Amino acid sequence: MSKQKLSDEELARKNMGGSDRVYKTVFTKEMKEAGYTILIPDMLPIHFKLMCKIYQKNGYKMELLENKSRNVIDEGLKNTHNDACYPALLVIGQFMDALKSGKYDVNKVALLMSQTGGGCRASNYIHLIRKAVASQFPQVPVISLNFSGLEKNPAFPMTPQVALMLIYAVLYGDMLMLLYNQCRPYEVNPGDTDRMLARWEHRIKRLMDSKAYLYTTPIYKAMLKDFAAIPRRKEKKPRVGIVGEIFVKYSPLANNDLNEFLISEGCEPNVPGLLDFVLYCASDLINDRDLYDVVTAATHAYQIGYNVLYKFQKQQIKIIKEHGVFQPPHDFEHLRRCADKYIHQGVKMGEGWLITAEMAALAETGTKNIICTQPFGCLPNHIVAKGMSRVIKEAYPDANIVAIDYDPGATKVNQENRIKLMLANAVL
């Protein structure tokens, strides 16, 4: 057998289990050097804008998709099957709508999809994306972004430097999201909070050009000072927690701008941070060690990663508490204890026990109004969320919990009417 060095494309196809029979167009170093535009779906606008900056700093041209028209849903319906979950349909639809828009050179564009490696179909529908794209744009590569080694691509490696920067993007994104939601509903001068958010997004991107972004304490304190300086009304508004499947919980495309709608209805949205989901994923593998007596090198790596991330979270909570103006996020170990009152941490498909933990922690800390976002096709989340909402209500009788279904046939008007009905009984 020849020992000739494999090309980037051949090596990537080998690592991904590719073959000539089931061919995948692979992103290569030549494509990176040629300036291919990498498109990513819109799940967390603040966090993903920072992620784009990180990859731009590392030599990639990346862009966050913001197309939200009905055509996105229509393209999703045309390019996937009826059993695909709503998040998969939206991601595929957003990609296909972008490729057909004429905005991009389809011969110099690639698509990026994140994968957690869990049992959720989100780790599997990258193949549905490839199938949809291959039928009309076979030259467009689809890249996997993952920490679990699901797919390896020499032209798009997960280096320690990139992984570290992505962690900081989660930390700063969570902080900005928290401060924005606690300021925007109360601002005296409309637009002040949006301008402050844009200013800090720009500043963090600039900090990432050097190692200054590593010094979180002074950055957090500066954020808190600036947002606290925004003139705000003293009135008390109903706080509404948003939990559920990760994509629909965060994505304005998927939840029909739920965050903005709640603010327009005189409420303060309370959205748990992305770091909780990252810690949830890490803790699940650690739990497997105790549940199934399975110990691997990955188990030790995830334990170290969990400890580091949890330390970061405790630092952030401590600084927010010391500042004294804003309410900090929930401590993740506290979330785990909340879950243990109602459900086993072995329930980990989809968002599993995390949904229960977030509902319980919100109700316990004064956010009694809770919207659980439920996308079509996400069976684990439907079972856990609707099943556990009853026991949460039993523990907190004044909890006001409603599940809202999101699917291709659900109209925005019906969803908003159900939310308005819930807000008619909102608890301050």
Q: How would you describe this structure to a colleague?
A:
The chain is of the alpha/beta class. Among the domains are: 8-156, Rossmann fold (3-Layer(aba) Sandwich), CATH 3.40.50; 236-272 and 330-423, Rossmann fold, CATH 3.40.50.11460. 52% of the residues lie in helices and 10% in strands. The protein contains 17 helices and eight strands. The strands form two sheets. A four-stranded parallel beta sheet has the order 2-1-3-4. The chain has a four-stranded parallel beta sheet with strand order 6-5-7-8, sandwiched between helices. Strand 7, helix 16 (379-395) and strand 8 form a beta-alpha-beta unit. Helix 4 packs across helix 5 (86-100) and helix 7 (160-183) runs parallel beside helix 9 (216-228). The radius of gyration is 22 Å and the shape is globular.
